Amino acid sequence: MTSSQYTPSSFFEEYKSGIDCISSQNRDDFHNKLYFSNVISLMEKYLYDLFIYEISNDRVALVKLGTQNRFKLESLKIPYLLHNCVEDFIINSMKNLVWHRLNDVDVFYKNVLNIPFNINSNLLGKLKVRHDIVHRNGYDLNGNKVEISDHELDDCISTTNTFIKDIDKKYQSKKN
Fold first, then answer.
1. How is the chain split among helix, strand and coil, in percent rounded to 5?
2. DSSP letters along 116-164, please?
3. Which residue from 12, 26, 33, 53 has the least number of CB within 10 angstroms?
4. Average pLDDT over residues 147-163
5. Residues 6 or more apart whose Cβ sits within 8 Å of residue 165
6. What gap in Å lies between CA 16 and CA 97, rounded to an integer?
7. What is the pLDDT of residue 111?
8. Where do the domains of the chain lie?
9. Quick check: 8 and 16 in contact, CB under 8 A?
């Protein structure tokens, strides 16, 4: 599939709608921090929505997921199984995954959906900055204030767009 044949998934369209909203806002350091964090949240939601949709609607994918290390040592009690569905247990476990831990999520995408990630240091750096913004109120480990310029926000959007679009192209190619 060439890039001119690529039709974005509904998951990508929802992600892009959020990005477009952020891009159209007035900017200053305070709001840029919020927007920066939200870009990463949009990435997480895309990864979550696509994966949960696939394992919920494709029995083969769900069975592949059930054979992953996360579930290999899981022992469910008979009373639980009599009153619950093991499929729901697996899906709900995945719903509680931290979706910005890309190295963890990559394993599931690669092993279950056959979609490897192209994680780079620039993207990992954006996740670190987002962590400082969200968990330290905009300060790094050394107590330095994190400031987000318009350029840094645009770079976060561009980096995340490249990452998500690569996944979406692989997903769409797999679906066609």
1. 70, 0, 25
2. -----HHHHHHHHHHHHHHHSSSB-TTSPBP---HHHHHHHHHHHHHHH
3. 26
4. 97
5. 8, 12
6. 23
7. 96
8. 9-175
9. yes
